[in-house]
Write a structure and sequence with these properties.
Layout (H helix, E strand, L loop, with lengths): L1 H10 L1 H19 L5 H45 L9 H8 E7 L4 E2 L10 H6 L4 E3 L11 E3 L1 E9 L2 E12 L4 E9 L5 E8 L13 H5 L16 E3 L13 E3 L5 H14 L6 H9 L2
Parallel strand pairs: 9-10
Antiparallel strand pairs: 1-2, 1-5, 3-4, 5-6, 6-7, 7-8
Helix pairs in contact: 1-2, 3-4
């Protein structure tokens, strides 16, 4: 050990000097009484430093696992809104077999092939001035202020046949920005399901956006009127199923007027010309 220290000193005299100073200081601190304030403070600082180093190492080491779990959770939410998530489902396998990921240019409604769909992070892109665009106040009914120029969409297929289209949506509720997916049938008009998987609304009130019973009310609803306008909305007091326009209406959340309005607004925005309307029109025209 002594020879090793001498060898180190031979090649790095300055480092050896600092090391010797540290040893002298450490020996002096350790020789102090356990009741000494100086010793207590130094031991506490040393422990904090060691813990900080260990936490940093753990963070770096676990980062790949965290990234995988995040991607797995996203796939789970997509399979859920697609109606493909069952108990015991192999999420990676089911996603690979049934879901095709695409990137769409919201301005043209066309698919984009020069962006890596697996690496593209839409949330990060929405915050990046080089990849986003600011939404004019008069058009920002979802209160999101900015959006990514390109967005991911997920096509559910059985063989070569398109079964449904899953669109990412987001908008502000009462307390939080709600993130989710809206699944439409292959006609790009009929709702299959909705999944607002990430939100911070009031539990038992606005937080009921995740309630399976409320989500089930969306199935079969229509997004666009005969005139091609976004007609799908939430209504206070419940939907009168005897009315012809009930196909465009979903029960609002009881006691959560502002959250319900936020859901209506995000649907209005993302299904409109600022969102996916151009893309969905092309889907319908191409059959």
């Amino acid at each position: 050990m002594l020879n090793a220290e001498k060898k180190t000193c031979k090649y790095n005299e300055q480092l050896c000097k600092y090391y010797e100073q540290f040893r002298v200081y450490a020996d002096r601190i350790l020789a102090l009484s356990n009741d000494s304030l100086e010793k207590t403070v130094n031991v506490a600082l040393a422990l904090c430093l060691v813990c900080a180093v260990l936490v940093s190492i753990a963070t770096v080491a676990l980062r790949p696992l965290q990234g995988y779990n995040k991607a797995l959770d996203m796939k789970k939410n997509i399979l859920d809104v697609a109606g493909l998530l069952e108990e015991g489902t192999d999420i990676d396998q089911a996603f690979a077999e049934r879901i095709e990921s695409k990137i769409v240019d919201l301005r043209t409604g066309d698919y984009v092939d020069n962006i890596n769909v697996d690496e593209y992070d839409q949330r990060k892109a929405a915050k990046d001035p080089a990849q986003n665009e600011l939404i004019p106040v008069e058009k920002d009914i979802a209160s999101i202020r900015q959006k990514a120029k390109y967005t991911k969409v997920f096509l559910v297929k059985k063989g070569d046949q398109l079964q449904s289209i899953i669109l990412p949506i987001n908008g502000y509720g009462l307390w939080s920005t709600m993130y989710g997916f809206l699944a439409l049938e292959a006609d790009a008009q009929t709702v299959q399901s909705i999944n607002l998987y990430d939100q911070g609304e009031t539990p038992g009130l606005g937080g009921e956006v995740v309630n399976p019973n409320w989500r089930a009310l969306w199935k079969g609803k229509k997004v666009y009127s005969d005139k091609g306008e976004v007609a799908l909305t939430l209504v206070k007091g419940g939907v009168d199923s005897s009315r012809p326009d009930s196909v465009y209406k979903v029960d609002g959340l009881a006691g959560a007027t502002l959250t319900s309005r936020g859901v209506s607004n995000l649907i209005q925005y993302w299904m409109g010309t600022e969102g996916f309307a151009t893309y969905l029109n092309k889907i319908r025209k191409n059959g």
